[in-house]
Structures are given as structure tokens and as C-alpha cells.
Amino acid sequence: MIAPETIAAVLIAAGALVAAVLLLIRRQGWQAWLLAALSLASGLLLYLTLFPPRLPIGGETLLVATAETPAGVRAEPGERLVALPEAPTIAGAERVPDLATALRRHGQIQRIRILGRGLPPRDRDADAGLPVEFAPMPVPRGLVRLEPPADTPAGAVFALAGQASGLEGGAAELLDPAGRRVDGRTIGADGSFTLGGTARAAGLARFTLRLRGRDRAIVSDTPVPLRTLAEQPFRVLLIGAPSPEAKYLRRWAEDSGIDLQSRLDAGGGVDLAGDRARLNAANLRDVDAVIIDDQALLAMGSGGRSTLAQAVAGGLGVVVRMTGPATAATRESWRALGLSVEAGSDIAPVVLPPLAPDAEALAFQRGPGSDDVPEGVNAFDDPAPDLGHWMVRTGADFVTAVTDADGAVLAGWQQRGQGRTALWTVANSFALILNGQDDRYQQWWSEAISAVARPGGLFRPEVPPLPLAGERMAICGLTGAAQVLGADGTANTLVIDPAAGAKGCAAYWPSAEGSHTIEQSGRGGKQTYDFLVLPRGALKAITARETGEATARWAAEQNAPNMRGVPERRGPAWPYFLAWLLLSGALWFAERRWRTVSDQPG
């Protein structure tokens, strides 16, 4: 449908243009051109009288006070000051529950200026529709980034990463639940650090990340949750020839609680294996991983490798252990399992990092020793063993699982169907045990096996890594009726959001810090999952940095060209009507006089 403004513009323009052309036809000269121009101007003023230009409604700036806004801030003429719930007490500020309420109350606002740390997530969910100005405050001193450790199997090494602001030359320390120092690092110029330790008993533990300044004074203590998994024992097949590596792999499996069955070819047709170690489809369906050396894989023949490859596609994990330089035939046998690498005929030394930053941290990682081991054996100062690894070239699909201190690949895997095939390149890793580094040997093999083993069926819903008391969080991965038991034992039923679909997500607001438990009914009965809720303010510096960065991004989006315009209304028509009336009268008088003069005889 054609707008009235368009119809009026066409009619007025046509009339003014016809009048101007008739004037120029009847007479030439500058007077005629002047009258024609006045006719067009009269038509324009008539259109502006009928449809005055649109003007913005109001012109006020909304000052939005957020957390850490100075208490002495005041609104200037043309500004209106509102305070969000996070803002301190400010004289003259109007308290509002959120930004949307302030915008609804004050429709004349033309722009927004945010003061303080920035808007919380509640106020960044929707567009404001107005230009927004925001200058982030400096990053506060303290912990500004924290990546807590992932769920860790018992006996494995965990790691956390973080970044501190304003603490160059200070220290980051990791304390165990008993308050003993596990690891420590000096904070450099960029503030980044990485700490780690060994996961012990299964369950949820509360470690502490302590930051110290250059003067060794404590700046902050931040709780760090660590969940140690008590998974069912891995079922592993060990295939190869009798060797020191096979001997210590069996000992490692026994110490780690792994259900290991071995099939060792002693030569001369002697096969040291039980019925459960036979490589057939039925047995392979019952195990989580297979460790096989390259020569045993090559000797299996195409039929045996085909059976193993089918099991990998169905979810089985395989670790191929190199016992010598790779040949074209061995690489071809690897490709049958989905492992594509090149080279592997040259060997290079393995660069080993220190076991721990100091003897105290090493003692904690190893735990209590036995009575028959003297104190001087396997001490912190003992030299590292000489190890070598076969140098292979990998592609983009190869995922590294174990590296040395220089980043060289010691073990890695590739996906095949639902399973994974890994390559172990260390020629003599058992030398670690002979030199007192049992911890490193166990860690390497634990990481390699965990990377490829068939996935388990534990109840492990998705929760935020660092939930805070009093803040909304989402719990996903729920498949049925579930509830959360708070730290005080209070039960809260979780309502799954239908919009989440297959993700199975529900909202939860923890009211108190401490250990919380998610309970869900499953096939095998009640399933539980523990998570730690941190106290309010535990991540104050992190929250401040994230809030400032998120608000700056949100403000930039509000200033984008595609944002909706400022509310407008029609301006007053009387100035244009008065100008049109005067101009039309002058035009009528001038045209009449011009005709009178032109009609007189010469």
C-alpha cells in the first residue's frame, strides 16, 4: 500500500513543476526563473506543512550505576541517574531492579552511559536499542582467570591453569584439603601459571589456590574443586612377546586395579594365554582396550587385523607399542586399524621435566611409602633415566596424548568409527621404573589408556566448573526425574526445560556454599553426582574482569549500524505553514505585478 506521504509528495511536486514550466514558457528572463524557483520552494513548504520532519523524543542520557560505581557520582543537566541492585548507595539515584525496567520508565532516553564494573548477565540478554557508552575499569589485583582440573581417574595427575593480575614476582601455590602445599610456581610478567598434583581417593575434594605477592603476603585463597573418578576397572588385553616392558605393564595394571589378561608368545609355538585373551569378536566386545606390540600385530595376518579393526570401529581402544623401527609393512598394519603415520625409523632422546618443583611436592605426590624402602632411594635429586622414542610424522587427525618436555610426541591416537587407535613410540619406558620414576611411568600409561579406552557409563551430568552461591546455574545431561541435595541436606526438585531438547537441562540456584549432590533414578537404581559450590565473592576478580569484557562487547553491539532507531515523533507544522503562507503570498503578488507590466502596451 502506498503511503500518504508518497502520494502527497507526487501530487505537490507535479503541481509545482507544472506551474514553474508554464511561467518559463510565457516569458524569458531572470524574473521568470526566479518565480519558477519560488513555485518549487512553495511546493516543498506545503509538503513540510502537511508532513513535518520527525524529531527524536527527548534527549536525556541514562546513567546506569553498577558494582563499584563511585558513591559521589552525580547526574548533570540532561542526564538521569539510576542504580542497579549491584550498585552501592548513591545519593539522588533511582533504584531499579534491572536495566529493562529503567528503559520502560523513561521512554525519553536517547542514549545510555554505564558506570562501574559493568552489567551482569541479567541485563545483557536483550538489546537496548540505544547507543551505549562504557569504559571498563582497570582489571583488579588478584586471580583473574582460573581453569579448574577436569574429572581425574584415581592415581592420575591433574592440572589447573590460571592468571593473576598485578602479582608479578609473587607465587601461586596449590594446597591439598589438609592444607599441605602440593605445587608452586613463581608468577611471571604475563601472570599465567599452571599447577598440578596427583588424584588420590575417589570422590570430591576441595583444594585451595593461594596467591602471594612479591612480599610473600597472602593475597587470596580460592577454593578449587577436584573430582576423582571411581570408575569400574578397565578390562585390558596385553598382546606381544615376553619382555621387560610386558612385565612392568602387568605390574602397573595390577597396582592400578586394571583387569588385565595377557597373551604372550614365548616362541616355539608356546602361547602363554588363557581363553579370555583370545583375539576373537566375543572377547574383544568384553574389553575396553588392547595393548599390542607392532610385531604381534604384523604376525596376526589380515584376518586377525580385520577382526581387530571391526572391534575398533565398534568402540574398542587399541594401543600399538613400537618395539623397533617402523617399516612399510608395520605402517601398513597400523593403517588397517585407522592409524596413519609416516617415518618412525629414527630414534631421538626423550626430554624429561622435573618430577616436581621440590622434594616436598614430590613426597606428597608419591604418598606414604613402604617400610622396606629406605629414605635415600629414589630421591628428588636422582638423575633422570635415558629414554628414546621413535620419531614419526603425524597428520591433522592425530591427537597427542603424551609428550615430553620439548613437546615431542610419545603417544597419540586417531579415531576410527566409534573407537580409537593409539601409537606408543617410547622404546624402553620401563627404564622409568628401574630409575625410581614409577609415578611418571604410571602417569604416561594411564593417559594413553584413558585416551582410547571404551567410554564408560557413569552418571556424569554437565555442571559449570565453578558455580557460586546465589547465582543461577544450568545442569545438563539429565534423563529423568532428578533433584539436588544442598549442603544443608535440603532437597530441590529439578525441572527439565522442554526447550533444551535432548540436552536435558534444568536451572538451579544454590543458596549456600559447600558440597551439593545431584540424584537421578537410573536403570541400576539411584545415581548420584557431587559438585562443589563456591562461596559468594570467591571469584571476585574473575567476575569483575569477565563482566567488564562482556559489557564492552554488548555496548559495541548496541552501537552497531543495524540497531533500531531512537523513538521519534512529528515536529511542529506551524513554522512551515507560516513560511509557505508568506512565500505563496509573495509569489502571488509578484506574478500579478509581472502580468500587469507585461500586458501594458509598449
What would your notes on this structure say?
The chain has about 600 residues and is of the alpha/beta class. Among the domains are: about 5-55 and about 570-600; about 60-140 and about 545-570, Rossmann fold (3-Layer(aba) Sandwich), CATH 3.40.50; about 285-350 and about 385-450, no CATH class; about 475-535, Immunoglobulin-like, CATH 2.60.40. Helix content is about 30%, strand content about 30%. It has 13 helices and 31 strands. The strands form 8 sheets. An 8-stranded mixed sheet has the order 17-16-15-18-19-24-23-22. Strands 4-3-2-5-6 form a 5-stranded parallel sheet. Strands 8-14-13-10-11 form a 5-stranded mixed sheet. α1 (about 5-25) runs antiparallel to α2 (about 30-50) and α2 (about 30-50) runs antiparallel to α13 (about 575-600). The longest helix is centred in the C-terminal third of the chain and has 26 residues, at about 575-600. Residues about 370-375 have low confidence and may be disordered.
